[in-house]
Batch of 4 targets.
Target 1
Amino acid sequence: MKKLLVFIGLALACRLLVAQTLPLVKFVPDYPFAHFENNRLTYPGDSLPMERFFSKMDSVVFLGEGNISIMHIGGSHVQAGIFTQQFRDNLLSISPDLIGGKNFVFPFSAGGTNNPSHYIVRSTGNWSYCRNAVRRETDKRMGLAGAAITTTDPMATVSIVTREKHPTSLTPNYDFNRVTVIGFSETDNVVPVVSYDSSLLQGLYDEWKSTYTFLLPDFTDSICILFDSVPGEFTLTGVLLENDMSGISVHGVGVNGASVPSYLRCHDFERDLKLIKPDLIIFSIGINDAADTGFNKSYFKQNYKELISIIQRVNPDCALLFVTNNDSFKKIRKNKYQVNLNGPVVEEAFMEMGKDYNAAVWNQFDIMGGLKSMEEWEKAGLAKKDKVHFTNEGYKLLGDLLYNALITRYIEHVQLNAKRP
């Protein structure tokens, strides 16, 4: 018994030591207009769902066992990829052995729009593109990605590379050995195949999930999807790159111009969400909802209620984290902007939803400096001239701030549980 108590004491001491060494990002230079002192997660309601998520995270961080799945969902801020990637890279820096176990991606550039920064896409042939933010295009079936590309060109291809453009020894590993292509053929005769090491691999088709799963003979960081050279049409709605190793997966799901109703229009959203079954969802949807002068807080919250009900059907224990809108301006004429007064109203809505759903809230609006602070971010080179979007440096800063807020709460969780008998 005495030996057991000594062992438990050493284990607790080890966890406290590890918690004290978990890395936080340091900020230089200082930005006096921002409220970095308020950079934290708040719990307007019960913190239990986040505590459950942190407990699952313990197994990955301290034992190197299991997987946690995080999804960051939003509009153009997320499609750009820099915000999500900075957060992801920081999170994987907790331990040198952590890897990204799953990676849900969509080949945006094949459809002629900007691709997220953390993977490279090359394509050939003719593709048409649609997205959930455009009402007239939502007759096309879309899923989790909120977008779709369609081809009738038998020579069309899509290649995906998960490594960074300029890899370093510190670049996280996203190698995979299983590929799931999500999509469908209206004529049922166009089937995707995967080119790997000069061989063409056939996939295992799941009609209910509308997926083709390919098992690769080895790990890789790149893949090419092509089609049997027969007449017909194929629509691609997502690609899941996987391995079976323990780690942390962070999926970025974002579409330019997307609002909350945009994702409610996606017929296969719930079905696809089951493929990644997130343990934590970070909501960054709202900037496009609030761009409307007729913004209605009750309608905004009702739309979120419908989206959250879908998520809770997939995983009732999924923790939720709301990111309030950034401060923004509206363009009223050339080179003339006025502040979007909906900012504080949306901030209030997110705080209310934090209480309603026992979710964490990261108050980006307040941390930035509140109303009209976007002008200061622009002057500092952190925001673009449209006073809605951020520069690469601005998005990286946001990723660092969100990571610090999450990991600070996680350290508190570890310290509190290490003191318990």
Target 2
Amino acid sequence: MNDFARGLADLEAQSLLRRRRVVSGPQGPVLDVDGRPLVAFASNDYLGLASHPAIADAAIASIRRNGVGASASHLISGHHAEHEQLETELARFVALPKAVCFASGYMANTGIMPALVGAGDAVFSDTLNHACIIDGARLSRAEIQVYPHADVGALESRLRASRAANKLIVSDAVFSMDGDIAPVAALVDLAQRHQAWLLLDDAHGFGVLGAHGEGTLAHLGIASERVLYMATLGKAAGVSGAFVAGAAEAIDWLVQRARTYVFTTATPPMLSAAVSASLRLIHADDWRRERIRDHAALLRVRSAAWPWRLLPSATAIQPLIVGGNAATMRLADSLMASGFWAPGIRPPTVPDGTGRLRICVTAGHDSVHVEALAVALTRIAGEWSEGNAGNSAVDSPGHAAENASA
């Protein structure tokens, strides 16, 4: 029988015990957290749309038209006109032939991959890919080959040596804990030369990158029939769910074979109506993306005074490498005591020794919020130096241990 108490105590001793903070009220740059206001740099609401009145109004209007629940799976009687319309709009938005929606990004990746490959096939996965990609690969029962982060040469060697019947390359487009962008052009080239599919997870690029938020493919000017493009709708879009877009026959196959789509109740139609309203705002409000870039640039300048290293990132994710688990949480707690919420991220989410603050700048923040965070970090750095606190900065992030053993 599991000794849960001992396991929890072990996590506590390693500074790995996680705590759920209770948030009250609408999402925004300032949140009520456990009963006190904090300036929050903890959110994936990158464009500040989660509480936008136009999106809320669209959801409310849909409830009045259609009720709340879809009541059945899409292939029974749950596929509503709102779902159909949104899938058409999403495909048009990302300039791909067809799209299908899933209830979440996790359900998308764990459904897509087993539908595309199986025993006798091979999955080639970046070592820093998100957990849902790792789990999707495992569920597929294909051979899993993990290549070092963004190492195109290593990936090419593995593809060349593989005798698998079908090959699937899978990568985050924007890596969730480092904020860097995958070498997408090289991945597409390898997929074409080795007759492989490329599944690109753009959970953190959709809405943020591209001239009008179309995502990483548009940002890089890349198009290929070999790409299946997945993105989530609960981050920059501010609502919930996910979608995958690509060649029409590939999407039709997923509708038939992705178990997390076939065997689950459809999402409430009101969510599709809300995402439709969000897409209009994403496309129109270029200032939201410009503000994110300005905030990141401000942090970059201010970070020169800190003993911790801000990883290079052109996205909303600005990781500040601290090092050890205890030091990471001490810094997060010090910021929280100063009125700022920037969560400490520790293994297994990131590799051992690369604990960090995952600072997310959003369009909801203004420059005063970001400057105040920078001032607080500078002050804490001075206090640590004077008190010889022993924080451990590291030179570079390593590779995720979980994926390495996928």
Target 3
Amino acid sequence: MKSYRKELVYNVPSRRAFINITDEVQTCVDESEIKEGLVLVNAMHITASVFINDDESGLHHDFENWLEKLAPEKPYSQYKHNGFEDNADAHLKRQIMGREVVVAITHGRLDLGPWEQVFYGEFDGKRPKRVLVKIIGE
């Protein structure tokens, strides 16, 4: 069995964003030369997420509104975590959206459903953060 590891780095200029990283993950699969296996894609920071969903701007707007209702950024004083940092809401949003995804690789391609795409979700941006891509297979 072969394995491959790569870190992708994102530096989102805003506090929050959803970035389609499907093509970058597929590039990693291509580089690995693994034709049958699994790819793990996970955010290596506790205020960021990796998830699978549709690449549709209205849905992303809905995610933003829904997450802000569940874990509003302000007032900062509503969270015990906030003291030195003001990112308690980002920790909660990450918990909801998830840490990682695992995708099958079939014939050297990500084996995703018709509308599925892989996304990086940033909830406390303005600094570089890493995403791990780990691939195993043959």
Target 4
Amino acid sequence: MVFDLESTTLPSTYPFALWKALLRHSPQLTTEKFVGILPLRATENKEGIFLTKRTKLVLRLPVAVAELIAASLSGSTLQLGFNSLPIGNYKSRAILPFPTLHGQLVMGDNDEVLFMEDIKKQLSEMEITANLICGKRHAINDEQQSIQGYSLVIHDLKPDASLQLQYAGLGGNRQFGCGIFIPYKVISGLSDD
């Protein structure tokens, strides 16, 4: 479900406050296993992150509860500490299979080799075969908690595996934007010829 947002500034630690605000408004989110909040696309500045009118709040929700939760959130204002986040209209967007997916922050071991071994194990348990590219180490923090991991590109996915990975994600903390995969644009047709 994709929600319109108004321009505003949020602290860079917003994922934790956003989840708390969503739970205050829609407590049933805690009972849904595959709920995920995609990281907000925003511009960073000294005060945190700046959301433009083009920024969207995107929630991955099970079909059975998506419309109900979306309707209850539309038109509301979430309070994130000292910041207000007005939620606008919403629309549903289907998850489509793409051969290459990107996760901004996938939780895992501090050691890149151990992280990659664990990711391969998780993919094997899901019966997914693909190629992996590990990116930079990232963290999200606030005064009480810290989540660390790596960005990750998974490519050469078959359509069913792509959908499965987008539905289930990898690792934990999907409510904070971790382990969620989105289509990754690949430039093709480039050659040395």
